[in-house]
Amino acid sequence: MLAVLIIVPLFAMFIAFIGNMSGIGGGALLVLFFLYYMGLSSVSAGGLSLITIATSSVVGSYSNIKHGFVSMHLFKILLVMGLLGVFLGSLLSFVVPTDIFKGVFGFIPLSIGTFSLISVLKQRKLKDYVKPGKKLGKDVSFIGLVAGIISGFTGMGIGGITGTYMTAVRKMNPKVIFSTIILAMIITSVFGGLLHLGSIRFPENTLIYIPLLIVGAAVGAFIGASVSGIIKSKNLRLFQSLVIISTGILAIFIYLLV
Questions:
Q1: 130: which strand partners?
Q2: What is the mean pLDDT of the chain?
Q3: 46 with 195: CB under 8 angstroms?
Q4: Coil, helix or strand for 180?
Q5: pLDDT one-digit tens code per residue, 155-212
Q6: Rounded to whole angstroms, what are the CA distances from 46 to 55, 84, 185, 209?
Q7: CA 248, 39, 57, 184 torsion: positive or negative?
Q8: How far are the Cα atoms of 119, 153, 168, 201, 242 from residue 124, in angstroms, in the given order?
Q9: Span 131-146, pLDDT tens digits
């Protein structure tokens, strides 16, 4: 028990650091941790993951807003569509058995990461990224909805899909995009987490992990947001791609091994 009390906040800190660096929240790795290390159901794992992401996003957003990296227009779109998607995705998570969830989970980040990496390699010579304007188009709203559905279903943040699309397809500034997404994930992740956790009854020995996750996520997010502010945009995109792909491969490997 003592080992778990140490491992949980340290792992949350590590994930929050990676999440704020890459703009994805780190939910996929958290879900794997809860599923296979702690032996929780997919609904429980998704709920705890989203609560941890929300904490990480709050701390990271303070630094991002302070440095002027947030696009409020994009934030509003992602927030509205993300919340709708999270609601629909959470409903889906209640009807999909944990065993099936484990089988398909890894292919989601693997697909997203592969697309992101290919686009990064194709855009090696891209010098100037576009800044998000006030007219972003219906495609952004659609992507926000899809990302919300995936988030509510898997317990991942909305950053993987929205961040990849906005930087790879729309060629928008990664620092601005990742920072804006992280801000939106505060609310979408809290909403999704409450939907998940409010539908189940946790054992008392599981509830103790929530404050540990929050503390660890807060520390990791502060460090990650500070570091991401001084790294080049292209390097952030490459880092994001590699993190997402690695997570997908890890999820598939663990599933086949277990």
A1: 172
A2: 81
A3: no
A4: helix
A5: 887 888 888 888 888 888 877 888 888 888 888 888 888 887 776 665 556 667 778 8
A6: 14, 17, 14, 14
A7: positive
A8: 9, 33, 11, 49, 15
A9: 776 677 789 999 999 9
137 in the Ramachandran plot: left (φ > 0), alpha (ψ -120 to 50) or beta? left
CB 150 within 8 A of CB 81: no
Cα 74 from chain centroid (whole Å): 17
Number of domains observed in the structure of the chain: 1
Confidence class for position 229, pLDDT limits 50, 70, 90 = low
DSSP H stretches of helix in 67-97: 72-95
Instruction: Dig out the tokens for 10 from the structure.
Output: 């340290």
**Token digits of residue 24:** 């994805």
Phi and psi based region of residue 23 (left: phi greater than 0; alpha: psi -120 to 50; beta: remaining): left
C-alpha 49/C-alpha 256 separation (Å) is 22
What does the block give as tokens for 41? 């159901």
Angstrom CA distances, 2 to 6, 41, 233, stand at 7, 22, 40
Determine the residue type at 121: L
- Overall pTM > 0.85: no
Distance CA(49)–CA(36), nearest Å, equals 13
- Rounded to 5 degrees, what are φ and ψ at 127? -95, -40
CA distance 258 to 253: 9
Q: Which two tokens stand for residue 247?
A: 């997570």
Domain that holds residue 6: 2-257
